[in-house]
Design a protein that fits this description.
The protein has about 100 residues and is mainly α. The protein contains five helices and no strands. The longest helix has about 30 residues. It is globular. The two termini are about 30 Å apart.
Length: about 100
């Protein structure tokens, strides 16, 4: 195996590992969302309900963004994690601790 092939394999393995971690983070967020029993399970219902309860009816996250977080396509920023912790009714330290364990 030549040097280029080894680098390609390592690069591919690194990307897959990161994708898996992103999915794990997304599953944590989804788990917290789905454990809320007082609202319908859809993402949009969650966003609408939390907009009313916590964000003065302002748009704080889009359904697409939340979906991208939950499926691991994107990782939320610290600011968005803070908003999500409020919306998910979970302590920010608890949420961050669980996410950091995955990384």
């Amino acid at each position: 195996m030549n040097q280029g092939s080894k680098c390609d394999i390592i690069s591919t393995m690194t990307i897959r590992k990161e994708e898996n971690r992103n999915k794990d983070v997304g599953q944590v967020l989804q788990k917290y969302r789905l454990r809320l029993t007082d609202i319908p399970k859809s993402r949009q219902a969650f966003i609408d309900d939390r907009s009313r309860k916590f964000f003065d009816n302002t748009e704080w996250i889009s359904e697409k963004t939340l979906g991208n977080y939950e499926t691991g396509k994107n990782i939320p920023t610290l600011l968005n994690l803070k908003k999500l912790s409020m919306a998910l009714e979970v302590d920010i330290e608890e949420l961050l601790t669980e996410i950091v364990r995955l990384l």
